[in-house]
Amino acid sequence: MIHVHAPTEKKKDFNAALNGYRGLCAVLVFVFHVGSAGIILWPSGSPGADLLGALWHSLTYGVEMFFMISGFVILGSLLRHRSIAAFLQDRVSRIFSAWVPALCAVTAMCVLWQIPPLEDRSAGSAAALFLGNLFLLPPIVRFPMIHQVSWSLSYEWVFYITAAVGLLLYRRSQPRYALMAVWFTLGALFIMLFPRALFFLTGIIVFYYRDWFAQRMQWLKFPVLSLFVFLLAWAATGAFLAHLNDTIFDFILDGRIVALLLAFVASLHLFASVTLNASRQTQFLCGSVFQFLGNISYSFYLWHTLVMALFKRIVQAYVVPEVGSGVGLAVFAISSLLVALPVSWISWRLFEVRFAAAMRDWFRRRAELGGPVRAT
Asked: What are phi and psi of 25, to 5 degrees?
C-alpha cells in the first residue's frame, strides 16, 4: 500500500529508491489489472505461454511488495512519534484521508450501475456493508468488499495496531515477557491464517538488521533476479486467494511451504537491495518518473480500478466490436493510465497532502486542549 511522503518537504531519512519502489509496486498492480479485466484472454497451452501467464498473474503480488515497505517504515515511524496515540493518529490521517473519498466513489458507482456487492440490496443492508468497508473489516470479518483493494488496507491496519500494542506491552507491561509471548503468538497466528501478511516481516527484518545487510552489499547485486524468484515462487503457493481459502497450515500439509520459504528469502534479498540502493539494476527507481509514481502510489492504488471499470465498459461496448480485442486491450490500458494518473495526482494533493494535514492539525489541537497525549 501504500505509504507516501509529503511532496513539499523531504525528511532527512528520505530514501529515494524506496519511494521509487512504491511506484514500481503500483505499476505491477496496474499491469495485472489490465490483463485481468477480461478484454483479452491470455494465451496458454505451451510451456512458453504458460510461463508468461504465470509471470503476468504474479504481478498481483505487487501488493505484498507494498507490505514490505510498511514493515520497514512503520517501525521507524513508531520510534519517531512522541507517543503511540500520536502514531495511530498519523496513520488515521494517512490512510483515511484518501480512503474515504475513494470508497464513496466506488460505492456510488456500484449503486448506480447495480454492480455487486450492492446490487438489489435494501438501503439498510447497503449502509451496513458500506460502514463495514469504511472501517476496513473485510476480509478479517467475512462479508463482501465494495472496493476490491480494501483487503490490503485491512491487513495494514492489523499491522499498525499490532505494532503499536507490541511497543506498548514492551514498554509498560508487567510481567512483560508473558504478555509479549501472547502478543507474538497472536501475531504469528494472524500470519498463519492470512498468508499474504507474511511480507510485513520482510520489511521488519530488513529494518532491524539493516546494518547487517549493509555489511554484505556484495550479496545484493541482482535484485531483478530475486524479484522474479519472489513473484514466481509466491505465485506457486496459490496465495492469490489465500485470504479467502488457504492458510499457511495448508501450505505445510501439501508441500507449498517450500515455495513460500523460497519467496520469503527472495523478498529479503530484493528489499534489502532496494532500501540500501545496492545495485545499479534499481537506479531507475530514483529517476523522476518513479519518484512521481511513488508519491502518488497510494492514491493510484485506490483510484485506478475505478477508472478502469469506466473504460472497460466503453472499450467492450464500442472498441472491441469494431477493431478486435488486441487493439481494445491497448486502448483500454492507455486510456485508463492517462486518466488514472491525473486523478491520482489530484487525490494525492487534495486528500493525502492537504486534507491529511488538516486532520493532523485537528488531532494536535485536540491534544493540546486536553493536555499532553502520552501513551508510552
From this structure: -60, -45
d(CA 318, CA 296): 31
Residue 333: count other Cβ atoms within 10 Å of its Cβ. Answer: 20
C-beta separation of 145 from 138 below 8 A = yes
On whether the CB atoms of residues 22 and 69 are closer than 8 A, the answer is yes
User: Do residues 237 and 263 touch, judged by C-beta distance below 8 A?
Assistant: yes
Asked if residue 4 is part of any domain, the answer here is no
Q: Which residue has the cell 510481567?
A: 175
According to the model, what pLDDT value does residue 4 have? 43
Amino acid at 114: Q
* Residue 10 located in a structural domain: no
- For residue 375, tell me if it sits in a domain: no
d(CA 179, CA 166): 9
Q: For the chain, what is the domain count?
A: 1
> Cα–Cα distances in Å, from 89 out to 135, 364, 367?
15, 9, 11
Decide if pLDDT at 14 tops 90: no
349 in any annotated domain: yes
What rounded mean pLDDT belongs to the chain? 90
Confidence check: pLDDT of 79 > 60: yes
Q: Which domain holds residue 233?
A: 16-369
Residue 253 has pLDDT above 50, yes or no: yes
Task: Assess contact for 361 and 97: CB atoms under 8 A.
Answer: no
